[in-house]
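Minutes, project check-in

Agenda point 3 was the complex the collaborators sent over. CS summarized: two entities, 291 residues total, and the question is how they sit relative to each other. Sequences were read into the notes so everyone works from the same version.
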Amino acid sequence: MFGASEYARALKPLLPQAGGYARSLLRNRHDAEDAVQTAALRGLERLSGFDEARPFKGWWFAILRNCCADILRRSRRVRLTNLSSEIAASSSEAEAPDWDSLDRAIEALAEHHREIVRLRYFAELSYGEIAEALSIPPGTVMSRLHLARKALAARFQEEAE
Amino acid sequence: MSDLDPAELSAFLDGELNAARAAQVAAIIAADERVRAEYEMLEQADARWRSMALSAAFRPQVRWPIPKEPPLPVWAAALLFFIPIASIAEKIAGAIVASFALNGLALLALVACIVAAASFRNRSEKPLSI
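CS then shared the predicted structure for the full assembly.
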């Protein structure tokens, strides 16, 4: 039985990737921290439903992904009424990655490839863990990730020329 | 490239192939210039994404719920109550035997309380400390 202490210990090494993954979706550190905090507690609540035969990392990142989606939905509603303050808050973030470059690269991808790329690079999930998080076969992960990489490589080449 | 699924180049790059297949794919990459060019292109895209992911990574703090403290066991509370009673009784009785007996009981009670306090502290420190 996977207890609360084991859960907390298993989560600890995943936090940097969790932070990066949430930040890549939400674009600011504060929201990313909120998402990781919510996902950590939600995972604790759902621990009794976790099947230890399945990859823990994939299971937990699926929860984090849903938490990020919740925050995105909320922020879209807020953006309608409070756009200027949100832009000010996100642009004042120290050491922000080059989101424009990230956006351009992501735009080159089909919708179903984007999430695989985020889970592979920001969350550092294996093919099996991505398959678990997205409920798709590992073979599909392999082919989609390859196509996504080819599209990204072509995009980077275009930028270089 | 006929015996190579192009997606296996990505799987090879990610270390997702088994050892035998990885060796076969490595040999194909070394032998076929066209495959090697495609593999190098994938490597460059991979390196660029890794550096972008690295710049976004940070370690968020997780605040765990504070576990409810277990109540002090009834027997420990009774022993705590017994110490001052024993001390007073010794003064009242005055007899040496009674004094030894009461002091002995008080000492036992003190040791039991220390043990109870130590086990209580261990229990409250355990959950969710990462």
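Noted in discussion: Confidence is low (pLDDT under 50) at residues 81-92 of chain A.
Follow-up: revisit at the next meeting once the mutant set is ready.
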